[in-house]
Fold this protein.
Amino acid sequence: MLYLIGLGLNIEGISRFGFEILQRCKRVYLENYTVDFPYTIGELQEVIFQGKTKKLLLANREKVENLELIDEAKKMDVALLIYGSPLSATTHISLIEEAKKTKVKYKVIHAGSIFDAVAETGLQQYKFGKVTSMPAWKKNFEPTSFMKIVEENISINAHSLILIDIGLDFQNALEQLEISAKEYNIKLNKLIVCQTLGTKSQKIHYKEIEELKEYNGIKKPYCIIIPSKLHFIEEEMLKEI
């Protein structure tokens, strides 16, 4: 059987049900290519296995996307641990599709995610538009198309949540955001930056982009929100931040 288990946002965010399932799984994998964890893999292993000799195995993109886990789940109980919510990424939904096709039993154990936690900014969740992701730019690869989603959101007065690619430092992300916004003629005013939401070190910043350029204390994982027209209650909450 295959279990897709959400870890939630902090090191103790996994549900009691998820924890119990892990104790009986033959193999436990950690998906490690979509997020910068706010804790070490060693710390997570200690919380999950509590000193037992059982090992937490790492599952990179190739391991997950080539559907090896489905083959293993035909023979034994296998768990894939996913930071936040287990079905946020399309890759994980593909695992379910393949499990159905090959008649492999599966179960999803849900958990809190960034999509829940951004409500702490005071922004009303039903006023968010489509979510977009900012990839890390490389030589000869500088995509700005994620701003197309922001443009669409602005057109309907919706807030834009931008998820940040793994490994992308905050100042580089700001630079990419500015360049991309200029290409789409989008004026950036105050931004909301959320770091390590759901953990003890969480912080929410609401600042002008020039102020953020001078700030070097943003920890990973973090996300950026471009707010649209604010409701007066949203405005009051953000002023307190």
About this structure: The chain has two domains: 2-112, 115-240. Strands lie at 2-6, 27-31, 56-59, 78-82, 106-109, 132-134, 160-164, 190-195, 203-208, 222-226.
